[in-house]
Amino acid sequence: MSPRTPAWQSWSDELLERVPVERRPVLLVLVSDAAPHDGGLGARVFDDDAVLDALEHDVIPVRAESHEEPQLAARYHRGGWPTMVLLDGHGEVLEGGTWVDAPELLAMIARARDVLGALPRLPARGDKQREQVLHARLPLEIEAALLSDFDERHGGFGTGQKFPHPEALDYALLRHAEARNPRLLEILEKTLTHMAEGGLHDRVEGGFFRTCEARDWRRPHTEKLLETNAGLTRNYLEAGQLLDRADFLEVGRRTAEHLLEAYDDTGTGLLHSALDPDDEYYAADSAARLTRRPPARSGRFLADANARAISALLKAGAVLERPEFTSAAVRIAENLVRKLVRSGRGVDHVLDRQGRTLPGGLRDEAETARALLLVLQSTDDRRFLPTLEELIERLATREVESLELSSGERSTRILEEAVVAEVLLRAAILLDRPSLEEVGRRLLEQHADECRRGGWAMAAYGRSLELVLHPPLHVVIVGAADDDRTSTLLAAAVSSPVPSRLVQRLDPVSDRDRLLALELPEREGPVAWILHRRRPLGEYAAPRVLQQGLWTGHGERLRS
Question: Model's pTM, two decimal places?
Answer without folding.
Answer: 0.79
